[in-house]
Amino acid sequence: MSSKNVKCAACHKWIHTVPGKIKKITNADEINNFSRNIRNLLNINDIICGNCRTQQFSVTLNENSNDIHEVEYVELPISRTVSTHKYCCVCNCEDNLTQVPEEAQLQTYLKRKIYIPTSNRCCRSHLIKKRFYDEDLNRLQVFSNYSSLTTDEIQKILNNVTSECTATVLDKCENHGLSEDQIKIFTGLSWDNISELRSMMVSMRKSSSRTVCDNINN
Fold first, then answer.
1. Which runs of E-coded beta strand occur in the chain?
2. Secondary structure of 136-152 in the HEC alphabet?
3. Which domain of life does the UniProt lineage start with (predicted)?
4. Structural domain containing residue 28
5. How many domains does the chain contain in total?
6. Entry pTM
7. Which of 12, 33, 103, 148 lies at a C-alpha separation of 20 to 30 Å from 166?
């Protein structure tokens, strides 16, 4: 079907009159995401115009003042996982889930260049000290090559990336910011080995100049 004969399912403008790349709704996740922001009932195979695709708005109600607040979403060419809290974004399991920690979100973005939506959850068994095991990190699948983020989410990502870039090796060791291979190079131990040793050294005093992790490294 020619784009001249199609209207945007969100704003009802003719597709060919709006600049930008169009979006075809292909699955239930996309229906939920776009319907929440656009506030229109969508169906699979509906077409979204370039303008609505790049500028989505989520309207929330302030319960105290009944004011309506509009939050602008910016679509960026950043790959992302599926957006869901119903099942694990790594293995699709539905039991023993927890929200993906910020540390694991940052780890995934830095290591795989993949964004994990804030509300996503994963199995607790995939995590060690709020980060993914390397094998689970590599299991994450790209669901879309675009991510819709609020300005607050973009600012948080930039702040976290800045903090990670300025962290020292010891900082990364202390907060589990190194991969399994990297920690083995520095200490000869795995993260599981280090966690076990740290639990055995509970009586060792931690100071501002020397941590338990420092002593393990030495």
1. 23-24, 47-48, 55-61, 68-76, 97-99, 121-123, 127-128, 131-132, 147-150
2. HHCCCCCCECCEEEEHH
3. Eukaryota
4. 1-75
5. 3
6. 0.53
7. 148
